[in-house]
Specification:
two-stranded antiparallel sheet; 14% strand; five-stranded parallel β-sheet; 7 strands; 46% helix
């Protein structure tokens, strides 16, 4: 039985940058050995955030790689590595935040995740991160062809899980996503680190029993 605490009955977590440490540099430092500048140029001009976000919104990796290689044929091996060695970009769980998640779960707070993530690569996370079992559900952008900060993905979240926005607290590390959640009527916290998150949860009257700094 889930609890309503100080008007909040559900906490919705982002994953990447909040609970999961993901960074393409973990892989590409191995491929651009001792050439940080070349790596940064590749990640800015070839396999950049905008390109990767298309996969988060549902584009297949096969199409993404084909498009990128057509535009940057000289980088074909690196482009293919982005998908073939994608798992090497996962740095691991962010343990301090997972501890906060565990405390909320232990206190009976309803937990849901909302993540911008490719449908093709999210299974790696499901397999690797045991803490995902704490969530009643995980809404994955790439499976829905919608992504934060689009209003439609928040509306889908509300309808799928029967959420009342004003009684839902959303946690994300990206300001535009936080702003979008507030725009849809949710309470929201921008995440910077676990200590700051604890302080924010305490302000909202939620039960965390670890140090708040």
């Amino acid at each position: 039985m889930h609890k309503e605490i100080n008007g909040i009955d559900t906490v919705v977590f982002d994953l990447g940058g909040v609970l999961v440490d993901w960074n393409p540099r973990y892989l590409f430092r191995k491929l651009f050995v001792n050439d940080e500048a070349a790596m940064e140029t590749f990640l800015a001009d070839v396999c950049n955030s905008a390109w990767n976000e298309r996969q988060d919104r549902g584009r297949t990796w096969a199409e993404a790689i084909e498009v990128a290689i057509a535009e940057h044929p000289g980088h074909a091996p690196h482009i293919r590595a982005y998908r073939e060695r994608w798992v090497e970009m996962l740095g691991g769980a962010m343990d301090d935040t997972v501890q906060v998640l565990d405390e909320l779960h232990g206190a009976g707070v309803r937990l849901i995740a909302l993540t911008n993530w490719s449908a093709e690569t999210f299974p790696y996370a499901r397999e690797r991160f045991e803490f995902l079992k704490r969530f009643e559900g995980v809404l994955v952008s790439g499976e829905e062809n919608l992504m934060k900060p689009e209003p439609e993905i928040f509306q889908l979240l509300f309808s799928r899980y029967g959420l009342t926005p004003a009684r839902t607290l959303f946690i994300d590390d990206v300001q535009k996503n936080v702003d979008a959640a507030i725009g849809e009527g949710m309470q929201a916290v921008r995440f910077s680190d676990a200590v700051q998150l604890r302080r924010a949860l305490v302000r909202h009257g939620l039960p965390v029993d670890g140090p708040v700094g």
